[in-house]
Amino acid sequence: QVQLVESGGGLVQPGGSLGLSCVASGKFKSIxxxxxxxxxxxxxxxxxxxxxxxxxxxxxxxxxxxxxISRDNAKNTAYLQMNSLKPEDTAIYYCNAATLAxxxxxxxxxxxxxxxxxx
Length: 119
Prior knowledge:
The protein is 0% helix and 58% strand. It is mainly β.
């Protein structure tokens, strides 16, 4: 069984910064793409950023230039550094990853961490 645990959420003022972490644990051979999603109150969950095992990244237009996704493969950890935060970034942030079990890939979600941007 694979678990993803996010941490680092909290309350920050507009224009501030916050860093999130996502640690994968359990039984798996390797981790593929790691992703961050977010869900604001009353809205659908939306994709934020992706990082591939070799480091290639993609971002939603709404966060491009402000957020940076990274990963440490040795620690099975992904990070999301969020700068120049706006009130509209307020959401629960979820980590998602593809992990390779014996012969198949599994899609796993974390429990989420709350990010609130408010003065």
